[in-house]
C-alpha cells in the first residue's frame, strides 16, 4: 500500500500523522510526504534550508521512503491562481500513485492549509487518480485555533493506534528544532503527548492519532 501525506509547511505532517506514518512504514507500506511550500524573500535563506534538512531527517526516522518538495511560496498561496496549485499537486499524485491520502483539515486557521486541502481534493477527484481513501489530520496550533461555531469543527471519526510509535513521533518532532516550542506552547513535545493520550481515550487506546474521513472506497 502506498501512502502520501501532504503538508502545507514542513512539520505539519509530523504533528498531524507522524505516528501513523511510522506505523504504516513499519508494516512494509510505502510512505511519501509532499511539502507544498518553501519560504521566499520574507524568510532567512538559512532558515529555509534548515527546515528542509530537518524534514528529511525527521522523515527518515519515521521510515518515509521519499520526501517531495513542491516549492510554492509559503504564506502566499492565496496570491497564486488555484489551478497552478491544483496542477502541481496533480503532478505529484501521478508520480507517486498513492492509495491513501492524508490532507490538512479545511477548517484550520492557517490559510495555506485551507488552500492545500481544496487543491488536493481537486487533484484527487475520483477516476483521475489511484487515491481510494482520503483523511484529514489535525495540527496543534492550527486546527483548533479557528473561530469556534463559525468554521468547520474537527470531529474525528477515524483513529490510528500509535501507542508503539508515539515515541518516534516525538523524536521526529524534536528534529524540527527550528519549529518545536517549549511547553505550554501547543507545538511542544508535551502537548503532542497530551493530544495523543486524549485521542486515544476516545477509543480505548493508550495513544492515538485522529482523522476525519473524507472518502473511503472499500476494496
Q: What is the approximate shape?
A: globular
Estimate what percentage of residues fall within beta strands: 15-25%
Going across the major beta sheet, what is the strand order?
A: 3-2-1-4-5-7-6
- Mean pLDDT reading: 95
Structural class: alpha/beta
Radius of gyration: 16 Å
Order of helices and strands: EHEHEHEHEEHHE
Entry keywords:
single chain, 219 residues, alpha/beta, seven-stranded mixed sheet, 6 helices, 21% strand, globular
Could you explain how this protein is built, in words?
There is one protein chain. Helices cover 39% and strands 21% of the residues. With 219 residues, it is of the alpha/beta class. The chain is globular, with a radius of gyration of 16 Å.
Question: Can I get a quick summary?
Answer:
It is built from six helices and seven strands; from the N terminus they run βαβαβαβαββααβ. The protein is α/β, with parallel strands linked by helices and 219 residues long.
Question: What is the secondary structure topology, with strand pairs?
Answer:
Elements: E1 2-7, H1 12-26, E2 30-38, H2 45-62, E3 66-73, H3 82-96, E4 100-104, H4 111-123, E5 133-137, E6 158-161, H5 166-175, H6 189-202, E7 208-216
Helix pairs in contact: 1-2, 1-5, 2-5, 3-4, 5-6
Amino acid at each position: 500500500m502506498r501512502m502520501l501525506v501532504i503538508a502545507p509547511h514542513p512539520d505539519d505532517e509530523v504533528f498531524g500523522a507522524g505516528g501513523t506514518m511510522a506505523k504504516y512504514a513499519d508494516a512494509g507500506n510505502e510512505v511519501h510526504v509532499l511539502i507544498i511550500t518553501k519560504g521566499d524573500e520574507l524568510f532567512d535563506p538559512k532558515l529555509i534550508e534548515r527546515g528542509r534538512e530537518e524534514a528529511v531527517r525527521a522523515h527518515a526516522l519515521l521510515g518515509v521512503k521519499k520526501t517531495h518538495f513542491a516549492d510554492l511560496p509559503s504564506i502566499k498561496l492565496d496570491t497564486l491562481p488555484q489551478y497552478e496549485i491544483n496542477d502541481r499537486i496533480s503532478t505529484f499524485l501521478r508520480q507517486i500513485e498513492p492509495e491513501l491520502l492524508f490532507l490538512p483539515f479545511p477548517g484550520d486557521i492557517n490559510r495555506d492549509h485551507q488552500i492545500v486541502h481544496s487543491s488536493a481534493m481537486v487533484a484527487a477527484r475520483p477516476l483521475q487518480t489511484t487515491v481510494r481513501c482520503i483523511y484529514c489530520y489535525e495540527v496543534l496550533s492550527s486546527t483548533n485555533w479557528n473561530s469556534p461555531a463559525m468554521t468547520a469543527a474537527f470531529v474525528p471519526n477515524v483513529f490510528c493506534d500509535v501507542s508503539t510509535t508515539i515515541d518516534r513521533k516525538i523524536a521526529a518532532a524534536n528534529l524540527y528544532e527550528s519549529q518545536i516550542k517549549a511547553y505550554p506552547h501547543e507545538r511542544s513535545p508535551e502537548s503532542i503527548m497530551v493530544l495523543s493520550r486524549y485521542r486515544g481515550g476516545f477509543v480505548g487506546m493508550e495513544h492515538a492519532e485522529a482523522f476525519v474521513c473524507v472518502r473511503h472506497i472499500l476494496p
